């Protein structure tokens, strides 16, 4: 398994010999879009960074801030160094805001991660300074004179440029200064004293020193201690000595070494980051050897790198003594220094000593030990006010460092990636897992969705459960730690805070993943196989594979939430919005908005809990009808089990038929084949988690945690087998894999070697065509093979005439409906007649848990046959709805969909009357000096939120889209769509822009 060949071996040897820096890959020349042009860009989200942004803003500068962390306050909320002396609290208005309402006792005040993040958010929002979290600044732009002229950022939306006259580098390792060519003193490889803070019922053992904080008395609002966690939460600051060498791998390993020592059974929370006084500094214009007095005494030229124009360094990497550096790590001092540097940046700009406007570019450079291949990446969107696109910048061909190499790289260490890491490492596969956040487990740990909903609790899931139970009292903490410690024990490397942002390819072979590290380094990890467990098919999309997210026909999604964390809580599950996980600004804004609406609690989770994300369209795409027809496969990898749990409206027409929703709530068992994880073209890649190849309806059955855990494990076994057999992932002996899965209890023996039960037999389709007359029974078989079923349904429709009691109109209507869903207009007149003679019947929905009623079902069916005859009847029904006090969103959905399918401009006046109905339009929002809350949101309740935002926005957008496409004579629809195109919620903005753009591009 450890055999590697050719060039890979050369690179491996170079890496093993400590020559990592020598190996590189070449990124070809390309252009990046300019997202924004501002005066000052602040990189980093520390308290000091926020103060710098504020003070530059006060001087009239246009400012933008980006941070790789998922909220502001990485030096305080990220380190859990939540305390300050009274004097420190009084030292600045920002410190006062961070500690407002804090539990102060004697001389020490304590805040919470949530309070700190909210205070920092509010400072920037009030100053109207846009900021993006989850965004890594990886490079600097330079102008023609070589002065710094902005940065390049990498995030879920791809890479974009930010033009700026001055960059304030507030990253912990002065990453941008280094990129700009600043000289730095060496980082000697040695053991360093680092600190790590944990909240626990018991002091960690095995640390060099543990400082207790007996003054810390958490309010009851911060706690939700379950019966397993009946202990007193305490705050511990642990000091340990760990080896560091200044490399990405070194920092990744150090965080893990520390966690090995600080975890306790009673852990309630642990800091994401360690703190230490960096031994190195950036060589500045004016080095200072002065001892610490206060921030006011510092010479700001000690923070201006020598020979670099247009950049200032904020933090402990300034050219000051290490004693001063230690002082600057304190948020209070960081704020005072940030405020001074923000002013200085503004003064530089006013004095025109900073970079003048002019073409900016990203410089290139050759590499050594170049590994052949091509760097690919996604290009995505950012919403207003985060982007006001203006031109492009040129990026010269350049070398990217090889940061590591492995046999298996797991992108995303979440619900699926965590078990995959443990499974692969236990099978002896050399594994690196890169995880954007600072814990493994994703939604089930960071996201605080800590309980199973259905799924098969067997196989590797049973192994996990047993281990987690013994690991800790609080499930979210124990599970994250179980994955982490077991993966490490088995030899896997875990790189926290590290994001996959691209693919490194040679032809169709995936040879590596482009990553960004928390230290701001962008490079490549070479690998023989990748398991894309991002749940968003990030690597697949970057590699150029086909993916899907928005349904083509309409805007539709599944509810998204974000947990409010109380120490010791068993979870928090909610649903109040929609989010586009491919849009970095949407993710950032969603976090900001949720924090702003949350009054109390310890923290708000760092993970956006999205139920539906981008998915691969792979070799095989699983559909919900596969489950409803109990499909079997020869290559079943995992079996899934759930109720149909779509948090939204289904897309498939099957779900739009009378009573389907009424009978579909039994538990479904679902086989999924190995091929649903294989991309069509790219080799060396398996795509899993909720980014696998399945339709959106299907994912509502496939996304349960117990099954995804087994999926991760099964994917790990597949990679181990491919490496062992020396064959491509798409050519593994699947039977062997299945037998291993049976042995491990993941699959039952009966699932092995079964033939594909599709195509369905003709007899079955005939039977279904007959059965369907009774409450649509068997419709799933018909819909699973519409083309072959059609003649049988047509036959049954004809046979109604032969009944001795005459043609039964109800049965005839039912067949007319089914035929229309199959695209056959034979029964059009009956359907039109029914729609014209009946009214909306709200009672239909009662007790049925239905997304559609009979009128909706028939209107959709008429859409499917593009019925022009139906236009007067549908217009009549729309007029009726427009007169209602409350216009039901479910009804509007089919109206919009059908109108677009029928494409008759005669429907436009009726659509406009709906858009004009009270409360239907005007739900787009703007980000100003305040953040509009989600109406009805409650930070304490679960997914039974009273919020209507989700349904009202979809209702408006889908109606506006239909009207826009049918001829929007008065521009009402355009106005609505344009408002959404400028909405900070990317889910809506991206769709609205797409609709507007499609029209603009029409010849
Ligand atoms: C609100 C909500 C409630 C739910 N309730 C339940 C329930 O009660 N019971 C149940 O069984 N299921 C429930 N589910 C379903 C289930 O929890 C999810 O389907 C499942 O956790 C998703 O797992 P995943 O591995 O696909 O994604 P995740 O768990 O999100 O894992 C993906 C990981 O990848 C990381 N990542 C993403 N992109 C990158 C990148 N580019 N580079 C590096 N890292 C990256 C993320 O940080 C994350 O850690 C719920 C889901 C949601 C959203």
Largest sheet: 10 strands, mixed
Strand content: 15-25%
Q: Given the structure, what is the number of helices?
A: 31
Shape: globular
Q: Count the strands?
A: 36
DSSP helix fraction? 25-40%
Distance between the termini: 56 Å
Q: What's the overall average pLDDT, rounded?
A: 93
Q: Pick out the low-confidence regions.
A: 1-20, 660-664, 846-850
User: Helix/strand/pairing class, anyone?
Assistant: alpha/beta
Question: So what's the oligomer here?
Answer: single chain
The whole-angstrom Rg is 29 Å
Ligands and ions found: flavin-adenine dinucleotide
Give a description of the structure.
- By secondary structure, this protein is an alpha/beta fold.
- It is 34% helix and 18% strand.
- The protein is built from 31 helices and 36 strands.
- The strands form nine sheets. Strands 1, 19, 20, 22, 23, 24, 25, 26, 27 and 36 form a ten-stranded mixed beta sheet that branches. It has a six-stranded mixed beta sheet with strand order 9-10-11-2-21-18. It has a five-stranded parallel beta sheet with strand order 8-4-3-12-17.
- Helix 20 packs across helix 22 (786-799).
- It is globular and about 105 Å long.
- The two termini are 56 Å apart.
- Residues 1-20, 660-664 and 846-850 have low confidence and may be disordered.
- Bound molecules: flavin-adenine dinucleotide (FAD).
- Flavin-adenine dinucleotide (FAD) binds at residues 411-417, 434-437, 442-444, 449, 451-453, 455, 499-500, 533-536, 538, 561, 573, 607, 609-611, 689-690, 703-705, 708.
